[in-house]
Amino acid sequence: MPALTIDKARKEFPSGEQTIVAVDDVDLSVDDGEFLVLEGPSGSGKTTLLTLAGALATPTSGSIRLGDVELGDLEGNERSAVRRDRIGFVFQSVNLIPFLSATENLLAVRQLGGGRVDRDARDRAEQLLEELGLGGRGDNVPDELSGGQRQRVAIGRALMNDPDLLLVDEPTSALDSELGRQVVELLRDEVDRRGVAAIMVTHDERVTDLGDRIVKMVDGALVES
Amino acid sequence: MSIAIRELRRRFGQFLPVLVAMTLLVVLLVVLGAFLDGLSRSQTGVLRAQGDRVLVLSDDADLAPSRSRLPDGTVEALAQVDGVEEVGRLSTVATTASVDGDVQDVVLVGYDLATDTLPEPPTSGEAVVDAKLADLVDVEEGDTLAVGPDARELTVTTFVGDVSAGSPTIWVAADDWLELADTVNPTERATTQAAVVSGDATPDELAGTGDGLAAATVDDVIAADDVVTQQSSTFQGIIGVTFVVTLLVVALFFVLLTIERVRLYAVLKAIGARTRDLVAGLAAQAVAVAALAVVLGIGLGIGLTLLVPPDLPLVIVPARLAVLAVATVVVAVLGALGTLRRILRIDPADAIG
Ligand SMILES: Nc1ncnc2c1ncn2[C@@H]1O[C@H](COP(=O)(O)OP(=O)(O)OP(=O)(O)O)[C@@H](O)[C@H]1O
Ligand SMILES: [Mg+2]
User: Fold this and answer.
1) Ligand 1 site, residue B353, Cβ cutoff 6 A
2) Distance from the CA of A90 to the center of ligand 2, in angstroms?
3) Separation CA B24–CA B12 (nearest Å)
């Protein structure tokens, strides 16, 4: 069974008299351990598709399944739990919690929803930071880290709860190209090591070769390339 | 430690304005409460000095001792009631007293029974005196007071505290009071106003002793006092308004804070926080800030009441502080919950992109 199955998903936004079709009847599936690269021009609906896949928004029509869980069947708190336990997000604009250290940012996803921060959680956070080349920076708050380091902390946070699906939106846009490639390589390593399914949105042609499969999106629809 | 409490500690400056505002409001509440309790205490000292006894009055007095005139023989009749231990007379009259030409309004009290506060009645020509009189004029034990229009001389045997009835009180034996009261008001023959009764007899049993009698506990007589109830309802009104202001201040602060944190909350929701978690975090911050404000405010408030001149009747009552502390924390939580709707509306999809 694919980690993610998107079936005729459509997302419309009302805009005055008209409706914008941001995602136009998209079919897509991603397997465990597969690293999918999603590219396409600005405004083509890439971010919107990620919000649907990540249970951040509901499709106007169509179905989205995570493993065998139909996201449309979940109510509010269940969606929160799915986001916390089964999905890892890396946002374009990093979005770490500014008053928490790197380690605490990772542990925060454990605390949400009433989880406990135990020895295991601490070990895992430490190990992830180590893997991401941030050993020794765990006590620094985001302001004390460089852009690339912050993006790596965000990746650690996304992986903290051992998700089934990793959703990454333009991770390199704030980084210079060399650093960008390093970060994506790290991401690729983590996907391989953990066998997690991943979708990465990027404009950056220098990193698209790191994906297993490249899918192009134009005007809300997918064009396999 | 929760994320919210970490934020509070690390971003303390962000919470400083609301902490300062709440602390000042708590100071105001402490001072208002001290005025309320001080005023009512300074009115009711004579009654409170009677402890848990029952007062018997004439029933046309509406439980106001100064308007009561006990029928002859009431005291003797009350003594016969089952369960009665002691019966004593209690009467008051407003007059003046002068010390070395310094004239003060006083209330002259006649009594029979010693209590926890009061010694046995002094002998004729002597008086037990309210310590508050000593705050107002220079008088010591052994000094002589000239009381009433005839300037009857009374020697001060001792002072007792917390027995004022609006004005300072001067306590004499009940028989002496009858005689002195006649000099205060020559047109009417002085009559004993009330009886104080100790023992197991209920107010109803005591009131049934004779025609035209009413009986009530000290607390009920105080509660029936117009001056006291008017003062306390005025102060309670001001205190209530202060709590409303506190609620609005806290609510406004947390709304502004939430607006500032929309992005943070969207991210937290996106990574799995439920609305409940976010609201619980805000409530925890509100409780922490309120608790700190209560500690600081009560400290400062008590300090302030110590600086106030002693003729202002301010009294700090621990039970009132406890109520105030709990109410402040509850109000703060309610204020913080005012942001619930706003937090519910935050869209986790805004975190991405
Ligand atoms: N919340 C929204 N309300 C209305 N329209 C929206 C909303 N979100 C996205 N859109 C519209 O949907 C379309 C797709 O937007 P989306 O952000 O998915 O594009 P994108 O491919 O991620 O673009 P970019 O590469 O610039 O990030 C755009 O036309 C956008 O204006
Ligand atoms: Mg986008």
Assistant:
1) yes
2) 12
3) 18
